[in-house]
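Supplementary Note 3. Input sequence used for the single-chain structure prediction.
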Amino acid sequence: MQTGRKLISVMCVVALCSALLLSAGCETKAQTGALSGAGVGALVGGLANMHGSWGATALIGAGVGAGLGYLIGNEADKKDAQQRQTAQEGEVKPLAGTTWQVTSIVPKPPKPFKSMISSFRQDGTVLTTVTHTDGKVETATENYRIVGSTLIINKPDYVINSKFRMDGDTLILDNGSSSIVMQRVGG
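The predicted structure, written as discrete structure tokens, is reproduced below.
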């Protein structure tokens, strides 16, 4: 019985250390929080039920920890974004001075539109112009910055983290709940 407990303890410590080491490569605090939370949750879950099905409780702990870690990290990303008034020069490349038109969104947005064009400015703001099917035009200005392969778009009340990839004149964004393909129209 003692050997089983020691093995479980060692496995949980290894899981925690692995999560902490892997989190060093994360690009956002939300990603780091999710990974660290999963490791801590697995450790706590595994140790909480060492006499029963420790694997199941470790998995539950990992899931809960990942969710809580992501939420905490995402709030930290929001706070960081709000504290930044202007993006630094290196944080806006390679999108600064370019304009893109949406060619597809998956899944389709609930409110259809005729066109959507986003202009990424040198000052770290992005101006998005949406022309609706009824001809109504709306514009929105948001802040943006780039960290590694993550495009962070924010206003005081939200932050959107999207993985992005440029392939010539095509820009592909994926925020986890939707994927957007854009075509360069300027810059």
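The longest helix spans residues 54-83. Confidence is low (pLDDT under 50) at residues 19-23.
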